[in-house]
Specification:
The structure holds two protein chains of two kinds.
Chain A: H1 8-17, H2 24-41, H3 59-66, H4 72-75, H5 87-91, E1 97-98, E2 101-102
Antiparallel strand pairs in A: 1-2
Chain B: H1 6-14, H2 20-31, E1 39-42, H3 44-61, E2 71-75, H4 102-109, E3 113-118, H5 152-159, E4 165-169, H6 176-182, E5 185-188, E6 209-213, H7 216-226, H8 245-249, E7 260-263, H9 265-269, H10 273-288, E8 292-295, H11 304-319, H12 338-349, H13 352-365, H14 371-391, E9 397-400, H15 416-421, H16 427-432, E10 436-443, E11 450-456, H17 462-476
Parallel strand pairs in B: 2-3, 2-4, 7-8, 7-9
Antiparallel strand pairs in B: 1-3, 4-6, 5-6, 5-10, 9-11, 10-11
The chains are: A mainly alpha, B alpha/beta.
């Protein structure tokens, strides 16, 4: 983990990736926060993880322990067809809709 | 209210000493004008309707479940059909779900009486319940203090006695911390025990539904209804219903119940003096009732906060990508193009703490950094889990602080890092996926606020953890 210089450009770039817009004041504030946080995170440099595999879920170990008790369904759910949510009900929350579909701005524009 | 717990209320209903309606009347009276701001939505009419049905049934056949007719609340992260579910945020301020999530469905089937949806830090991100556009929640015993977060509304509602129990969510301590700050019992089951279907996601590999109650036996009574298998959450480990109420109550009949708890002296000594004093008092008390203590080591614990804030925010940045101003919730739809709808809706709909975490998570996962940050954190996470597994070779559970301090005052301003440090002792448990119960014990000599400890159990051995905790409760009173 190398030392990262959290500058305005980096904050703006990452915010853009997350589709979030920040004003100048917030950029400065987040720049300071991120610098602090990443500095704290640097302590992970002390840990030798050369032979360690990443663990993405804590269940990995436990599933092994409980293997006997678990049904096959846990490994792969049976793919049954069943009713889905009512489209009208779902669309009640939509900011904009037309013909039982979500309505959005044109994605491909005319030249 | 005459009844302190679900347990007492259940038997009073069973013996027809009181009706569900009367229990609810008391709760509504205690709720008052929502002075502690615990509630985002109050479902009074629904609650009276549910209470009426329960009373009719109790008259005929008695209560059919432990929870029949007993008023409860849900953190506003649990999706409820036809009842607004905000996640404590502006971006979902108007969202009325078309379906019930697992927890809502199960408690409805168990004939609970829903008083309302209670407040939380937006999307469960915070330790003080200040980070929500619905306004800060106040500590019911002293309005200058925070109730803790993120399930602060749950804690305040149980403490003010406007409900008998509340279901919160615990991603890095969000149930155990407010329970500790409010003197309640907070129980986070193993990761994978309770289905997360219909629980608005923050960190998917860490989140777990967790009840807040006034007693340990209440926890067992609730746990029974939340442990059915659910094929709608593939990360739930389908071990089936856990009904351990009788095995707890049977402890009343015995004189000796032995178990060993591991602890780290360093953890206890690093707490603020008032908290430390109470932890040593608690340890002394536990020893007096036959609990054995052994010292254990957690060489990787100090990295927990760093690991957590990379993993949780990475998962959050991905989970919260779904809020786009198109499908549901807050929308700035009057824009010239699609991209702007996303950007404007998200920028106005999310609060600062949520943005800060999304941005940190997006950074940790971004090209060029993900190996060094996200993957590295996941490797250290394995070492943290291994520390626990090693410790458990010597003991049945771990005795640990919940927080180094008590509830703090609203006026105590903290930087994000200082705020994150509140979760130092709760976070490792979520990283390792273990069950843990926060137990109230004593009061601070500094400010009179509640103190306590947590007992961390082995994965999927909640019954044992609840039994040990109940043994402590029995002997304490």
């Amino acid at each position: 983990m190398k030392k990262i210089n959290v500058d305005e450009k980096l904050v703006k770039h990452v915010a853009m990736l997350a589709r979030i817009e920040l004003d100048e004041k917030k950029i400065a504030e987040f720049q300071a926060n991120l610098t602090d946080i990443l500095q704290h995170v640097e302590e992970l440099n002390e840990v030798n993880v050369d032979s360690v595999k990443p663990m993405f879920t804590p269940l990995e170990n436990f599933i092994e322990v409980y293997k006997e008790k678990l049904s096959n369904e846990f490994k792969q759910r049976i793919d049954n067809v069943r009713p889905s949510l009512n489209v009208k009900e779902v669309l009640k929350n939509a900011p904009d809709q037309q013909d039982q579909q979500f309505k959005i701005h044109a994605v491909i524009e005319d030249e | 209210m005459n009844f302190k717990s679900v347990h007492e209320a259940h038997f009073a209903l069973k013996n027809k000493e009181i009706s569900s309606r009367e229990l609810l009347d008391d709760c509504i009276k205690n709720l008052g004008q929502n002075e502690n701001n615990a509630y985002i939505s109050i479902t009074k009419d629904l609650a009276y309707e549910q209470a009426k049905k329960c009373d009719e049934e109790i008259q005929k056949n008695g209560p059919s479940t432990f929870l029949t007719g007993i008023p409860y609340t849900l953190k506003d992260l649990f999706v409820t059909k036809g009842i607004r579910t905000t996640a404590g945020s502006k971006i979902l301020y108007n969202y009325i779900p078309p379906f019930n999530g697992y927890v809502a469905k199960r408690l409805e089937e168990a004939q609970g009486v829903l008083v309302g949806k209670v407040s939380c830090d937006q999307f469960g991100m915070g330790s003080s319940n200040e980070h929500t556009p619905f306004g800060a929640v106040f500590h019911p015993t002293n309005k200058d203090y925070v109730p803790g977060g993120s399930s602060g509304g749950s804690a305040a509602a149980v403490l003010e006695k406007s409900c008998f129990y509340s279901i919160g969510t615990d991603t890095g301590g969000s149930v155990r911390l407010p329970s500790n700050f409010c003197g309640l019992v907070g129980f986070k089951p193993s990761y994978g025990r309770i289905s997360r279907f219909g629980q608005i996601a923050y960190g998917s590999s860490l989140d777990q539904a967790a009840p807040l109650t006034n007693s340990v036996v209440d926890q067992a009574m609730i746990f029974k209804y939340l442990t059915q298998n659910d094929e709608k959450d593939s990360s739930q480990v389908p071990l089936g219903e856990v009904d351990c109420v009788d095995s707890l109550l049977n402890l009343k009949k015995i004189k000796k119940h032995n178990f060993t708890l591991g602890y780290s002296k360093e953890f206890l000594d690093n707490c603020r003096d008032d908290v430390k004093d109470q932890l040593y008092e608690a340890k002394k008390f536990l020893e007096s009732i036959g609990v054995k203590f052994v010292e254990v080591e957690f060489p990787h614990f100090k990295y927990s906060v760093a690991v957590y804030y990379i993993i949780a925010t990475s998962e959050a940045s991905s989970n919260l990508a779904r809020f786009d101003g198109i499908h549901y919730g807050f929308s700035k739809k009057e824009q010239s193009n699609l991209e702007s709808v996303y950007v404007k809706s998200r920028s106005e709909g999310f609060g600062d703490e949520v943005k800060r975490r999304i941005i940190l998570g997006t950074f940790s996962l971004s090209s060029g950094y993900s190996d060094e940050y996200y993957n590295k954190a996941c490797k250290v996470r394995r070492l943290i889990q291994q520390d626990f597994l090693n410790a458990f070779k010597k003991c049945d559970g771990i005795f640990s602080p919940v927080c180094a301090t008590t509830a703090f005052q609203f006026s105590e301003k903290m930087t994000p890092i200082q705020m994150y440090m509140n979760d130092l002792y709760t976070i490792p448990v979520n990283l390792a996926g273990l069950p843990s119960l926060a137990f109230p014990f004593g009061k601070s000599s500094l400010n009179g606020m509640p103190t306590g400890f947590q007992i961390i159990g082995k994965a999927f051995e909640e019954e044992r953890l609840l039994q040990n905790s109940y043994w402590i409760e029995l002997n304490k009173s």
